[in-house]
Protein backbone atom coordinates (compact mmCIF):
# COMPACT_ATOMS: atom_id res chain seq x y z
CA UNK A 1 0.00 0.00 0.00
CA UNK A 2 1.42 3.37 -1.09
CA UNK A 3 1.48 6.07 1.56
CA UNK A 4 0.83 9.58 0.07
CA UNK A 5 3.28 12.42 0.60
CA UNK A 6 2.55 14.94 3.36
CA UNK A 7 0.62 17.91 1.90
CA UNK A 8 -0.53 21.26 3.31
CA UNK A 9 -4.28 21.52 3.11
CA UNK A 10 -6.71 24.41 3.64
CA UNK A 11 -6.98 28.03 2.40
CA UNK A 12 -4.41 30.26 4.01
CA UNK A 13 -5.73 33.51 2.57
CA UNK A 14 -9.30 32.77 3.54
CA UNK A 15 -8.31 31.91 7.08
CA UNK A 16 -6.25 35.10 7.41
CA UNK A 17 -9.19 37.21 6.26
CA UNK A 18 -11.53 35.51 8.73
CA UNK A 19 -9.08 36.06 11.59
CA UNK A 20 -8.65 39.68 10.57
CA UNK A 21 -12.38 40.25 10.50
CA UNK A 22 -12.81 38.45 13.83
CA UNK A 23 -10.31 40.74 15.56
CA UNK A 24 -11.87 43.80 13.92
CA UNK A 25 -15.35 42.79 15.12
CA UNK A 26 -14.01 42.46 18.64
CA UNK A 27 -12.52 45.94 18.42
CA UNK A 28 -15.77 47.45 17.12
CA UNK A 29 -17.89 45.66 19.77
CA UNK A 30 -15.38 46.56 22.51
CA UNK A 31 -15.03 42.90 23.42
CA UNK A 32 -13.44 41.84 26.70
CA UNK A 33 -10.69 40.31 24.59
CA UNK A 34 -9.50 43.85 23.78
CA UNK A 35 -6.60 44.48 26.15
CA UNK A 36 -5.78 48.15 25.52
CA UNK A 37 -7.86 51.33 25.57
CA UNK A 38 -7.04 54.60 23.81
CA UNK A 39 -8.46 57.76 25.40
CA UNK A 40 -8.93 60.93 23.32
CA UNK A 41 -11.09 63.86 24.44
CA UNK A 42 -13.03 61.60 26.85
CA UNK A 43 -13.80 59.02 24.16
CA UNK A 44 -12.52 55.47 24.43
CA UNK A 45 -11.31 53.31 21.56
CA UNK A 46 -10.75 49.60 22.37
CA UNK A 47 -8.02 47.61 20.62
CA UNK A 48 -5.64 44.64 20.83
CA UNK A 49 -2.00 45.13 21.73
CA UNK A 50 -1.08 42.36 19.31
CA UNK A 51 -2.57 44.40 16.45
CA UNK A 52 -1.59 48.00 17.21
CA UNK A 53 2.08 47.18 17.92
CA UNK A 54 2.40 46.74 14.13
CA UNK A 55 3.11 50.48 14.03
CA UNK A 56 6.28 51.95 15.61
CA UNK A 57 4.48 54.39 17.96
CA UNK A 58 2.58 51.70 19.89
CA UNK A 59 5.45 49.25 19.68
CA UNK A 60 7.69 51.77 21.48
CA UNK A 61 5.04 52.28 24.23
CA UNK A 62 4.70 48.55 24.75
CA UNK A 63 8.46 47.95 24.84
CA UNK A 64 9.04 50.80 27.26
CA UNK A 65 7.32 48.95 30.10
CA UNK A 66 5.71 52.15 31.34
CA UNK A 67 2.25 52.58 32.82
CA UNK A 68 0.54 52.21 29.39
CA UNK A 69 1.60 48.56 29.22
CA UNK A 70 0.68 47.81 32.82
CA UNK A 71 -2.61 49.72 32.90
CA UNK A 72 -3.65 48.98 29.34
CA UNK A 73 -4.64 52.61 28.86
CA UNK A 74 -3.06 55.16 26.46
CA UNK A 75 -4.02 58.81 26.77
CA UNK A 76 -3.64 60.72 23.50
CA UNK A 77 -3.28 64.49 23.34
CA UNK A 78 -3.08 64.69 19.53
CA UNK A 79 -5.75 64.11 16.91
CA UNK A 80 -9.51 63.95 16.69
CA UNK A 81 -11.55 60.94 17.88
CA UNK A 82 -12.84 60.06 14.38
CA UNK A 83 -9.31 60.19 12.96
CA UNK A 84 -7.90 58.05 15.82
CA UNK A 85 -10.63 55.45 15.30
CA UNK A 86 -10.01 55.45 11.51
CA UNK A 87 -6.27 55.01 12.05
CA UNK A 88 -6.77 52.09 14.45
CA UNK A 89 -9.28 50.53 12.05
CA UNK A 90 -6.68 50.83 9.29
CA UNK A 91 -4.27 48.72 11.41
CA UNK A 92 -6.92 45.99 11.45
CA UNK A 93 -8.24 46.13 7.90
CA UNK A 94 -5.60 47.92 5.83
CA UNK A 95 -8.24 50.19 4.25
CA UNK A 96 -9.63 53.61 5.05
CA UNK A 97 -12.24 55.97 3.63
CA UNK A 98 -10.56 59.24 2.65
CA UNK A 99 -12.23 62.45 1.55
CA UNK A 100 -11.21 66.08 1.28
CA UNK A 101 -12.71 66.88 4.71
CA UNK A 102 -10.86 64.21 6.71
CA UNK A 103 -7.58 63.81 4.81
CA UNK A 104 -5.67 66.30 6.96
CA UNK A 105 -6.85 64.64 10.21
CA UNK A 106 -5.83 61.23 8.87
CA UNK A 107 -2.42 62.53 7.83
CA UNK A 108 -1.96 63.91 11.33
CA UNK A 109 -2.60 60.46 12.81
CA UNK A 110 -0.50 58.67 10.21
CA UNK A 111 2.41 60.98 11.00
CA UNK A 112 1.94 60.75 14.80
CA UNK A 113 1.46 56.97 14.92
CA UNK A 114 4.06 56.46 12.15
CA UNK A 115 1.67 54.41 10.02
CA UNK A 116 3.44 54.58 6.64
CA UNK A 117 0.75 52.77 4.65
CA UNK A 118 -1.96 55.10 5.95
CA UNK A 119 0.10 58.11 4.89
CA UNK A 120 0.57 56.55 1.48
CA UNK A 121 -3.16 55.99 1.14
CA UNK A 122 -3.84 59.64 1.94
CA UNK A 123 -1.29 60.75 -0.63
CA UNK A 124 -2.84 58.50 -3.28
CA UNK A 125 -6.19 60.16 -2.60
CA UNK A 126 -4.67 63.64 -2.90
CA UNK A 127 -3.21 62.69 -6.28
CA UNK A 128 -6.77 62.03 -7.45
CA UNK A 129 -7.94 65.50 -6.39
CA UNK A 130 -8.10 67.94 -9.29
CA UNK A 131 -5.86 70.93 -8.67
CA UNK A 132 -7.62 74.28 -8.94
CA UNK A 133 -6.80 77.88 -8.16
CA UNK A 134 -9.07 77.53 -5.11
CA UNK A 135 -7.41 74.50 -3.50
CA UNK A 136 -3.77 74.60 -4.64
CA UNK A 137 -2.61 76.80 -1.75
CA UNK A 138 -4.10 74.54 0.92
CA UNK A 139 -2.72 71.47 -0.82
CA UNK A 140 0.72 73.06 -0.90
CA UNK A 141 0.57 73.79 2.81
CA UNK A 142 -0.74 70.30 3.59
CA UNK A 143 1.93 68.59 1.48
CA UNK A 144 4.64 70.78 2.97
CA UNK A 145 3.48 70.05 6.52
CA UNK A 146 3.57 66.28 6.01
CA UNK A 147 6.40 66.10 3.47
CA UNK A 148 4.30 64.61 0.67
CA UNK A 149 5.64 64.05 -2.83
CA UNK A 150 2.58 65.83 -4.20
CA UNK A 151 4.02 69.13 -2.99
CA UNK A 152 6.05 69.73 -6.16
CA UNK A 153 3.04 69.19 -8.37
CA UNK A 154 0.80 71.44 -6.28
CA UNK A 155 3.41 74.18 -5.97
CA UNK A 156 4.09 74.12 -9.72
CA UNK A 157 0.36 74.55 -10.32
CA UNK A 158 0.30 77.49 -7.91
CA UNK A 159 3.27 79.11 -9.67
CA UNK A 160 1.75 78.42 -13.07
CA UNK A 161 -1.55 80.12 -12.16
CA UNK A 162 -0.23 82.74 -9.76
CA UNK A 163 -2.16 85.81 -11.03
CA UNK A 164 -5.46 83.97 -10.50
CA UNK A 165 -4.35 82.40 -7.20
CA UNK A 166 -3.35 85.81 -5.85
CA UNK A 167 -6.99 86.84 -6.08
CA UNK A 168 -8.10 84.08 -3.67
CA UNK A 169 -8.31 84.33 0.12
CA UNK A 170 -6.22 81.19 0.61
CA UNK A 171 -3.13 82.93 -0.68
CA UNK A 172 -3.19 85.03 2.49
CA UNK A 173 -2.31 81.90 4.50
CA UNK A 174 1.14 81.59 2.88
CA UNK A 175 4.08 81.99 5.19
CA UNK A 176 6.54 84.86 4.96
CA UNK A 177 9.17 82.46 3.64
CA UNK A 178 6.85 81.26 0.88
CA UNK A 179 6.05 84.80 -0.22
CA UNK A 180 9.75 85.66 -0.38
CA UNK A 181 10.44 82.59 -2.50
CA UNK A 182 7.76 83.67 -4.98
CA UNK A 183 9.12 87.21 -5.22
CA UNK A 184 12.67 85.97 -5.87
CA UNK A 185 11.64 83.28 -8.37
CA UNK A 186 13.08 84.36 -11.74
CA UNK A 187 10.83 81.94 -13.62
CA UNK A 188 7.78 83.99 -12.56
CA UNK A 189 8.54 86.87 -14.92
CA UNK A 190 5.11 86.43 -16.51
CA UNK A 191 3.71 88.04 -13.33
CA UNK A 192 4.23 91.81 -13.38
CA UNK A 193 6.07 93.51 -10.55
CA UNK A 194 3.05 95.77 -10.09
CA UNK A 195 0.86 92.71 -9.44
CA UNK A 196 3.45 91.42 -6.97
CA UNK A 197 3.45 94.79 -5.20
CA UNK A 198 -0.35 94.73 -4.87
CA UNK A 199 -0.15 91.21 -3.46
CA UNK A 200 2.53 92.09 -0.90
CA UNK A 201 0.49 95.04 0.36
CA UNK A 202 -2.63 92.89 0.57
CA UNK A 203 -0.80 90.03 2.33
CA UNK A 204 0.72 92.34 4.97
CA UNK A 205 -2.54 94.20 5.63
CA UNK A 206 -4.36 90.88 6.07
CA UNK A 207 -2.61 90.44 9.44
CA UNK A 208 -1.04 93.84 9.87
CA UNK A 209 0.08 93.51 13.49
CA UNK A 210 2.20 90.41 13.00
CA UNK A 211 3.26 90.96 9.37
CA UNK A 212 4.05 94.66 9.23
CA UNK A 213 7.70 94.14 10.13
CA UNK A 214 8.05 91.77 7.14
CA UNK A 215 7.05 94.42 4.63
CA UNK A 216 10.51 95.94 4.16
CA UNK A 217 12.11 92.62 3.23
CA UNK A 218 9.28 91.74 0.87
CA UNK A 219 9.21 95.17 -0.79
CA UNK A 220 12.97 95.26 -1.30
CA UNK A 221 12.75 91.89 -3.05
CA UNK A 222 10.70 93.56 -5.82
CA UNK A 223 12.54 94.58 -8.99
CA UNK A 224 11.32 98.16 -9.30
CA UNK A 225 13.45 98.70 -12.40
CA UNK A 226 10.81 96.74 -14.31
CA UNK A 227 8.19 99.34 -13.40
CA UNK A 228 7.64 102.57 -15.28
CA UNK A 229 8.63 105.88 -13.73
CA UNK A 230 4.97 106.92 -13.67
CA UNK A 231 3.87 103.84 -11.69
CA UNK A 232 6.67 104.40 -9.17
CA UNK A 233 5.75 108.05 -8.59
CA UNK A 234 1.96 107.76 -8.63
CA UNK A 235 1.47 104.40 -6.93
CA UNK A 236 4.52 102.93 -5.22
CA UNK A 237 5.67 106.08 -3.43
CA UNK A 238 2.15 106.87 -2.25
CA UNK A 239 1.68 103.56 -0.42
CA UNK A 240 1.61 104.22 3.38
CA UNK A 241 3.65 101.09 4.12
CA UNK A 242 6.40 102.28 1.78
CA UNK A 243 6.52 105.68 3.46
CA UNK A 244 6.77 104.06 6.88
CA UNK A 245 10.09 102.22 6.39
CA UNK A 246 13.40 103.84 5.54
CA UNK A 247 14.64 100.77 3.63
CA UNK A 248 11.63 101.00 1.33
CA UNK A 249 12.15 104.72 0.69
CA UNK A 250 15.81 104.10 -0.20
CA UNK A 251 14.83 101.25 -2.53
CA UNK A 252 12.52 103.63 -4.42
CA UNK A 253 15.06 106.46 -4.50
CA UNK A 254 17.72 104.14 -5.91
CA UNK A 255 15.52 103.31 -8.90
CA UNK A 256 14.45 106.94 -9.40
CA UNK A 257 18.11 107.98 -9.43
CA UNK A 258 18.80 105.49 -12.21
CA UNK A 259 15.96 107.05 -14.21
CA UNK A 260 17.38 110.53 -13.63
CA UNK A 261 20.92 109.57 -14.67
CA UNK A 262 19.77 107.72 -17.76
CA UNK A 263 20.74 104.26 -16.52
CA UNK A 264 17.05 103.40 -16.80
CA UNK A 265 14.66 104.73 -19.39
CA UNK A 266 10.93 104.45 -19.77
CA UNK A 267 9.95 101.21 -21.42
CA UNK A 268 9.14 101.69 -25.11
CA UNK A 269 7.34 98.36 -25.15
CA UNK A 270 9.91 96.61 -27.36
CA UNK A 271 12.81 94.24 -26.77
CA UNK A 272 15.71 93.65 -29.12
CA UNK A 273 16.10 89.90 -29.38
CA UNK A 274 17.93 87.21 -31.27
CA UNK A 275 15.75 84.39 -32.55
CA UNK A 276 17.24 80.91 -32.81
CA UNK A 277 15.14 78.50 -34.87
CA UNK A 278 15.32 74.79 -35.62
CA UNK A 279 18.52 72.78 -35.80
CA UNK A 280 19.59 69.46 -34.33
CA UNK A 281 18.99 68.77 -30.64
CA UNK A 282 21.33 67.15 -28.14
CA UNK A 283 18.95 64.66 -26.54
CA UNK A 284 18.42 62.95 -29.89
CA UNK A 285 22.11 62.96 -30.76
CA UNK A 286 23.62 59.49 -31.05
CA UNK A 287 27.40 59.90 -30.76
CA UNK A 288 28.97 60.22 -34.22
CA UNK A 289 26.38 58.01 -35.89
CA UNK A 290 23.49 60.44 -36.07
CA UNK A 291 23.67 60.56 -39.88
CA UNK A 292 22.61 56.91 -39.88
CA UNK A 293 19.34 57.82 -38.13
CA UNK A 294 17.62 60.25 -40.53
CA UNK A 295 14.34 60.24 -38.60
CA UNK A 296 15.54 61.33 -35.19
CA UNK A 297 17.37 64.64 -35.35
CA UNK A 298 15.50 67.87 -36.09
CA UNK A 299 13.82 70.17 -33.58
CA UNK A 300 11.03 72.72 -33.99
CA UNK A 301 11.89 75.17 -31.20
CA UNK A 302 12.22 78.92 -31.65
CA UNK A 303 14.31 80.24 -28.78
CA UNK A 304 14.57 83.96 -28.13
CA UNK A 305 17.54 85.62 -26.45
CA UNK A 306 16.58 89.02 -25.01
CA UNK A 307 19.72 91.10 -25.36
CA UNK A 308 19.15 93.76 -22.69
CA UNK A 309 17.85 91.33 -20.08
CA UNK A 310 20.47 88.67 -20.96
CA UNK A 311 18.04 85.77 -20.71
CA UNK A 312 16.21 83.22 -22.83
CA UNK A 313 12.54 82.77 -23.56
CA UNK A 314 10.65 80.93 -26.30
CA UNK A 315 8.25 81.73 -29.12
CA UNK A 316 5.59 79.52 -30.70
CA UNK A 317 7.39 76.53 -32.26
CA UNK A 318 7.96 76.10 -35.97
CA UNK A 319 5.13 74.43 -37.90
CA UNK A 320 7.34 71.35 -38.21
CA UNK A 321 10.85 70.21 -37.41
CA UNK A 322 13.63 71.74 -39.50
CA UNK A 323 17.22 70.58 -39.51
CA UNK A 324 18.70 73.69 -41.13
CA UNK A 325 16.15 76.44 -41.74
CA UNK A 326 16.66 80.00 -42.96
CA UNK A 327 14.98 82.84 -41.05
CA UNK A 328 14.54 86.57 -41.52
CA UNK A 329 12.56 89.16 -39.58
CA UNK A 330 10.58 92.05 -41.00
CA UNK A 331 10.48 95.12 -38.69
CA UNK A 332 6.71 95.31 -39.14
CA UNK A 333 6.43 92.21 -36.94
CA UNK A 334 6.72 89.17 -39.20
CA UNK A 335 9.11 86.24 -39.01
CA UNK A 336 9.72 84.33 -42.24
CA UNK A 337 11.09 80.78 -42.20
CA UNK A 338 12.22 78.58 -45.07
CA UNK A 339 13.11 74.91 -44.71
CA UNK A 340 16.26 74.21 -46.73
CA UNK A 341 15.29 70.54 -46.95
CA UNK A 342 13.04 71.66 -49.79
CA UNK A 343 15.31 74.21 -51.46
CA UNK A 344 16.44 72.32 -54.55
CA UNK A 345 15.13 71.72 -58.06
CA UNK A 346 11.72 73.23 -57.68
CA UNK A 347 9.50 75.88 -59.23
CA UNK A 348 7.50 76.44 -56.03
CA UNK A 349 8.84 76.99 -52.52
CA UNK A 350 6.91 76.98 -49.23
CA UNK A 351 7.62 79.82 -46.80
CA UNK A 352 6.19 79.96 -43.28
CA UNK A 353 5.19 83.32 -41.84
CA UNK A 354 4.72 84.06 -38.15
CA UNK A 355 2.81 87.18 -37.12
CA UNK A 356 4.10 88.12 -33.69
CA UNK A 357 1.15 90.23 -32.51
CA UNK A 358 -1.54 87.57 -32.90
CA UNK A 359 0.79 84.56 -32.52
CA UNK A 360 -0.31 83.00 -35.82
CA UNK A 361 1.51 80.85 -38.34
CA UNK A 362 0.51 80.95 -42.01
CA UNK A 363 2.24 79.84 -45.19
CA UNK A 364 2.53 80.84 -48.81
CA UNK A 365 4.40 79.64 -51.87
CA UNK A 366 7.07 81.48 -53.80
CA UNK A 367 6.34 80.88 -57.47
CA UNK A 368 9.51 80.97 -59.57
CA UNK A 369 9.33 82.63 -63.03
CA UNK A 370 8.76 80.18 -65.88
CA UNK A 371 12.12 81.11 -67.41
CA UNK A 372 13.88 79.56 -64.39
CA UNK A 373 14.14 75.81 -63.87
CA UNK A 374 15.90 73.63 -61.28
CA UNK A 375 15.81 76.54 -58.84
CA UNK A 376 17.26 76.52 -55.32
CA UNK A 377 17.14 79.11 -52.53
CA UNK A 378 20.31 80.17 -50.69
CA UNK A 379 18.76 82.82 -48.41
CA UNK A 380 15.60 84.80 -47.71
CA UNK A 381 15.88 88.44 -46.64
CA UNK A 382 13.17 90.82 -45.40
CA UNK A 383 14.18 94.27 -46.61
CA UNK A 384 12.31 97.51 -47.18
CA UNK A 385 8.92 95.98 -46.45
CA UNK A 386 9.28 93.11 -48.92
CA UNK A 387 10.59 89.56 -48.84
CA UNK A 388 13.43 88.69 -51.19
CA UNK A 389 15.06 85.39 -52.04
CA UNK A 390 18.69 84.99 -53.06
CA UNK A 391 18.41 81.99 -55.32
CA UNK A 392 19.96 80.15 -58.25
CA UNK A 393 18.48 78.46 -61.26
CA UNK A 394 18.86 77.40 -64.81
CA UNK A 395 17.72 80.13 -67.20
CA UNK A 396 16.82 79.41 -70.79
CA UNK A 397 18.38 81.74 -73.33
CA UNK A 398 20.01 84.21 -70.90
CA UNK A 399 23.03 84.47 -73.19
CA UNK A 400 22.78 84.47 -77.02
CA UNK A 401 22.57 80.93 -78.25
CA UNK A 402 23.09 79.23 -74.89
CA UNK A 403 21.45 78.39 -71.59
CA UNK A 404 23.20 79.06 -68.26
CA UNK A 405 23.06 78.95 -64.48
CA UNK A 406 22.48 82.28 -62.75
CA UNK A 407 22.16 83.61 -59.22
CA UNK A 408 19.43 86.20 -58.82
CA UNK A 409 17.50 88.26 -56.30
CA UNK A 410 13.81 87.49 -56.45
CA UNK A 411 11.05 89.56 -54.86
CA UNK A 412 8.58 87.06 -53.38
CA UNK A 413 4.87 87.58 -53.95
CA UNK A 414 2.83 86.40 -50.97
CA UNK A 415 -0.32 86.19 -53.07
CA UNK A 416 1.42 83.28 -54.85
CA UNK A 417 1.51 85.00 -58.22
CA UNK A 418 4.73 84.71 -60.19
CA UNK A 419 7.60 86.35 -58.30
CA UNK A 420 9.64 89.09 -59.93
CA UNK A 421 13.33 88.90 -60.74
CA UNK A 422 14.79 92.13 -59.35
CA UNK A 423 18.47 91.60 -59.97
CA UNK A 424 20.67 89.21 -61.95
CA UNK A 425 23.76 88.68 -59.80
CA UNK A 426 26.28 86.51 -61.68
CA UNK A 427 26.73 83.23 -63.48
CA UNK A 428 27.40 80.32 -61.18
CA UNK A 429 28.31 76.64 -61.06
CA UNK A 430 27.89 73.77 -58.63
CA UNK A 431 30.91 74.91 -56.56
CA UNK A 432 29.84 78.54 -56.13
CA UNK A 433 29.58 79.67 -52.50
CA UNK A 434 27.32 82.56 -51.49
CA UNK A 435 26.69 84.59 -48.33
CA UNK A 436 24.25 87.48 -48.10
CA UNK A 437 22.78 89.95 -45.63
CA UNK A 438 20.68 93.12 -45.41
CA UNK A 439 22.03 96.59 -44.67
CA UNK A 440 19.91 99.28 -42.99
CA UNK A 441 16.70 97.60 -44.16
CA UNK A 442 17.30 99.00 -47.63
CA UNK A 443 20.18 97.16 -49.31
CA UNK A 444 20.83 93.49 -49.98
CA UNK A 445 24.52 92.57 -50.05
CA UNK A 446 25.68 89.37 -51.76
CA UNK A 447 29.24 88.01 -51.57
CA UNK A 448 30.17 85.02 -53.73
CA UNK A 449 33.22 82.95 -54.58
CA UNK A 450 34.03 80.53 -57.41
CA UNK A 451 31.48 82.07 -59.73
CA UNK A 452 31.10 81.74 -63.50
CA UNK A 453 30.54 78.68 -65.61
CA UNK A 454 33.72 77.16 -64.20
CA UNK A 455 34.90 77.61 -60.61
CA UNK A 456 37.77 80.03 -59.99
CA UNK A 457 39.70 79.20 -56.85
CA UNK A 458 41.38 82.54 -56.16
CA UNK A 459 39.76 84.36 -53.28
CA UNK A 460 40.43 87.74 -54.86
CA UNK A 461 38.15 86.71 -57.71
CA UNK A 462 35.15 87.02 -55.36
CA UNK A 463 32.10 89.02 -56.36
CA UNK A 464 30.28 91.58 -54.19
CA UNK A 465 26.94 92.87 -55.48
CA UNK A 466 24.73 95.40 -53.68
CA UNK A 467 21.07 95.67 -54.62
CA UNK A 468 19.34 98.84 -53.41
CA UNK A 469 15.67 97.99 -52.83
CA UNK A 470 14.62 101.65 -52.60
CA UNK A 471 15.63 102.60 -56.14
CA UNK A 472 15.88 99.12 -57.68
CA UNK A 473 19.56 99.61 -58.49
CA UNK A 474 22.28 96.97 -58.88
CA UNK A 475 25.83 97.99 -57.90
CA UNK A 476 28.93 95.88 -58.52
CA UNK A 477 31.38 96.73 -55.72
CA UNK A 478 33.71 93.78 -56.29
CA UNK A 479 36.92 95.78 -56.67
CA UNK A 480 39.06 95.06 -53.61
CA UNK A 481 36.80 92.39 -52.10
CA UNK A 482 38.10 89.05 -50.88
CA UNK A 483 36.13 85.93 -50.03
CA UNK A 484 35.64 84.98 -46.38
CA UNK A 485 32.77 82.98 -44.88
CA UNK A 486 31.46 85.65 -42.47
CA UNK A 487 29.77 88.83 -43.69
CA UNK A 488 27.69 91.15 -41.53
CA UNK A 489 26.90 94.87 -41.12
CA UNK A 490 28.69 97.02 -38.57
CA UNK A 491 27.66 100.68 -38.28
CA UNK A 492 27.71 101.95 -41.91
CA UNK A 493 30.10 99.27 -43.16
CA UNK A 494 30.08 95.65 -44.24
CA UNK A 495 32.58 93.35 -42.56
CA UNK A 496 34.05 90.31 -44.30
CA UNK A 497 36.25 88.10 -42.13
CA UNK A 498 37.09 84.63 -40.90
CA UNK A 499 37.36 83.61 -37.28
CA UNK A 500 40.97 83.57 -36.10
CA UNK A 501 42.40 85.13 -39.28
CA UNK A 502 44.69 88.16 -39.00
CA UNK A 503 43.05 90.20 -41.73
CA UNK A 504 39.61 91.71 -42.21
CA UNK A 505 38.05 93.48 -45.17
CA UNK A 506 35.59 96.33 -44.72
CA UNK A 507 33.35 98.03 -47.26
CA UNK A 508 32.39 101.64 -46.60
CA UNK A 509 29.09 102.65 -48.17
CA UNK A 510 29.87 106.34 -47.77
CA UNK A 511 33.19 106.01 -49.65
CA UNK A 512 32.13 103.03 -51.79
CA UNK A 513 35.43 101.21 -51.41
CA UNK A 514 36.98 98.20 -49.72
CA UNK A 515 39.89 98.52 -47.32
CA UNK A 516 41.87 96.07 -45.22
CA UNK A 517 42.33 95.91 -41.45
CA UNK A 518 45.41 93.88 -40.56
CA UNK A 519 44.52 92.53 -37.17
CA UNK A 520 42.82 89.52 -35.73
CA UNK A 521 39.46 91.21 -35.81
CA UNK A 522 37.47 88.09 -34.89
CA UNK A 523 39.42 85.72 -32.61
CA UNK A 524 38.11 82.31 -31.67
CA UNK A 525 35.77 82.25 -28.65
CA UNK A 526 37.45 81.27 -25.38
CA UNK A 527 35.60 77.96 -25.13
CA UNK A 528 35.20 75.39 -27.93
CA UNK A 529 36.95 77.72 -30.35
CA UNK A 530 37.08 75.09 -33.08
CA UNK A 531 33.31 74.58 -33.13
CA UNK A 532 31.57 74.18 -36.48
CA UNK A 533 27.95 74.33 -37.66
CA UNK A 534 27.17 77.12 -35.20
CA UNK A 535 24.70 79.94 -35.72
CA UNK A 536 25.92 83.54 -35.87
CA UNK A 537 24.28 86.92 -36.30
CA UNK A 538 25.23 90.58 -35.77
CA UNK A 539 23.01 93.41 -34.61
CA UNK A 540 25.26 96.27 -35.74
CA UNK A 541 27.12 96.50 -32.43
CA UNK A 542 27.96 92.93 -31.46
CA UNK A 543 28.38 89.53 -33.06
CA UNK A 544 26.64 86.56 -31.44
CA UNK A 545 27.41 82.87 -31.89
CA UNK A 546 25.27 80.04 -30.56
CA UNK A 547 25.78 76.31 -30.25
CA UNK A 548 27.51 74.35 -32.96
CA UNK A 549 29.33 71.03 -33.05
CA UNK A 550 32.31 70.06 -30.94
CA UNK A 551 35.14 69.18 -33.35
CA UNK A 552 36.32 66.23 -31.25
CA UNK A 553 33.20 64.61 -29.81
CA UNK A 554 30.94 65.76 -32.70
CA UNK A 555 28.24 66.56 -30.16
CA UNK A 556 26.09 69.72 -30.22
CA UNK A 557 27.04 72.55 -27.85
CA UNK A 558 24.82 74.69 -25.63
CA UNK A 559 27.17 77.66 -25.12
CA UNK A 560 26.75 81.11 -26.62
CA UNK A 561 29.06 84.13 -26.82
CA UNK A 562 28.85 87.81 -27.65
CA UNK A 563 31.77 89.51 -29.40
CA UNK A 564 31.91 93.29 -29.07
CA UNK A 565 32.84 94.74 -32.46
CA UNK A 566 34.19 97.84 -30.69
CA UNK A 567 36.15 96.47 -27.74
CA UNK A 568 37.12 93.22 -29.55
CA UNK A 569 36.25 91.12 -26.49
CA UNK A 570 34.17 87.97 -25.99
CA UNK A 571 31.49 87.71 -23.30
CA UNK A 572 29.91 84.41 -22.34
CA UNK A 573 26.12 84.39 -22.46
CA UNK A 574 23.64 82.39 -20.44
CA UNK A 575 23.69 78.84 -21.77
CA UNK A 576 21.16 77.99 -24.45
CA UNK A 577 18.01 76.11 -23.36
CA UNK A 578 19.37 73.04 -25.16
CA UNK A 579 22.43 72.06 -27.15
CA UNK A 580 21.89 72.80 -30.83
CA UNK A 581 23.74 72.92 -34.10
CA UNK A 582 22.72 74.05 -37.59
CA UNK A 583 20.13 76.47 -36.18
CA UNK A 584 19.11 79.63 -38.00
CA UNK A 585 19.27 83.04 -36.32
CA UNK A 586 18.17 86.61 -36.92
CA UNK A 587 17.78 89.87 -35.02
CA UNK A 588 14.24 90.97 -34.15
CA UNK A 589 12.41 93.61 -32.13
CA UNK A 590 9.45 92.08 -30.33
CA UNK A 591 6.70 93.47 -28.06
CA UNK A 592 7.70 93.19 -24.41
CA UNK A 593 4.48 91.34 -23.53
CA UNK A 594 5.35 88.58 -26.00
CA UNK A 595 8.75 87.83 -24.46
CA UNK A 596 7.99 88.33 -20.77
CA UNK A 597 8.05 84.64 -19.89
CA UNK A 598 11.14 82.89 -18.56
CA UNK A 599 12.44 79.94 -20.55
CA UNK A 600 11.30 77.73 -17.64
CA UNK A 601 8.05 79.63 -17.14
CA UNK A 602 5.66 77.52 -14.99
CA UNK A 603 2.64 79.12 -16.66
CA UNK A 604 3.78 77.94 -20.10
CA UNK A 605 3.88 74.35 -18.87
CA UNK A 606 0.10 74.54 -18.43
CA UNK A 607 -0.64 76.75 -21.42
CA UNK A 608 2.13 75.88 -23.85
CA UNK A 609 3.53 78.12 -26.55
CA UNK A 610 1.98 75.79 -29.11
CA UNK A 611 -1.47 76.01 -27.58
CA UNK A 612 -1.23 79.81 -27.46
CA UNK A 613 -0.50 80.05 -31.19
CA UNK A 614 -2.61 79.49 -34.31
CA UNK A 615 -1.30 77.16 -37.02
CA UNK A 616 -2.95 77.72 -40.37
CA UNK A 617 -0.27 76.42 -42.71
CA UNK A 618 0.03 74.27 -45.80
CA UNK A 619 2.80 71.70 -45.89
CA UNK A 620 4.86 70.57 -48.89
CA UNK A 621 3.77 66.97 -48.20
CA UNK A 622 0.84 64.71 -48.82
CA UNK A 623 -1.55 65.20 -45.92
CA UNK A 624 -1.76 61.48 -45.18
CA UNK A 625 2.01 61.20 -44.98
CA UNK A 626 2.41 64.25 -42.75
CA UNK A 627 -0.07 63.54 -39.94
CA UNK A 628 2.68 62.53 -37.52
CA UNK A 629 4.45 65.86 -37.99
CA UNK A 630 1.36 67.98 -37.34
CA UNK A 631 0.41 66.28 -34.08
CA UNK A 632 0.99 68.84 -31.29
CA UNK A 633 -0.21 66.64 -28.44
CA UNK A 634 3.36 66.08 -27.21
CA UNK A 635 4.39 69.47 -25.94
CA UNK A 636 7.90 68.61 -24.77
CA UNK A 637 8.95 66.25 -27.56
CA UNK A 638 11.01 67.08 -30.60
CA UNK A 639 9.83 65.34 -33.71
CA UNK A 640 11.83 63.57 -36.39
CA UNK A 641 13.35 65.38 -39.32
CA UNK A 642 11.81 64.78 -42.73
CA UNK A 643 15.16 64.82 -44.45
CA UNK A 644 18.79 64.08 -43.83
CA UNK A 645 19.82 62.93 -47.26
CA UNK A 646 22.59 65.49 -47.73
CA UNK A 647 24.62 64.93 -44.56
CA UNK A 648 28.40 65.35 -44.88
CA UNK A 649 30.77 65.55 -41.95
CA UNK A 650 32.92 68.40 -43.18
CA UNK A 651 33.54 72.08 -42.61
CA UNK A 652 30.88 73.77 -44.76
CA UNK A 653 33.28 76.60 -45.63
CA UNK A 654 36.01 74.41 -47.15
CA UNK A 655 36.07 74.85 -50.93
CA UNK A 656 34.94 71.99 -53.11
CA UNK A 657 37.54 70.27 -55.21
CA UNK A 658 37.57 71.24 -58.89
CA UNK A 659 38.07 67.58 -59.80
CA UNK A 660 34.73 66.82 -58.20
CA UNK A 661 33.03 69.53 -60.26
CA UNK A 662 34.64 68.37 -63.49
CA UNK A 663 33.62 64.79 -62.90
CA UNK A 664 29.90 65.56 -62.62
Automatic annotation (TrEMBL):
Keywords: Kelch repeat, Repeat. InterPro entries: BACK (IPR011705), BTB/POZ_dom (IPR000210), Gal_Oxase/kelch_b-propeller (IPR011043), Kelch-typ_b-propeller (IPR015915), Kelch_1 (IPR006652), SKP1/BTB/POZ_sf (IPR011333). CDD domains: BTB_POZ_ZBTB_KLHL-like. The keyword Repeat applies. SUPFAM superfamilies: Galactose oxidase, central domain, POZ domain. SMART domains: BACK, BTB. It comes from the Eukaryota. This is BTB domain-containing protein. Coiled coil: none annotated. Residues 34-100 form the BTB domain.
